Amino acid sequence: MVNDEDRILADALGAAGAIGGGSGGRFGARLAARYLRKDVHEAALTLELPLDRAATHVGVTLARVGRLLDTTPDRGGPEVGSVLRALVGGGFAGMNPVVVTVTLTPAGPGTTTVAVRGAAKEGLIKQHAGRKTTCLVSDLLAAPGTP
Question: pLDDT tier at 147 (50, 70, 90 boundaries)?
Answer without folding.
Answer: very low
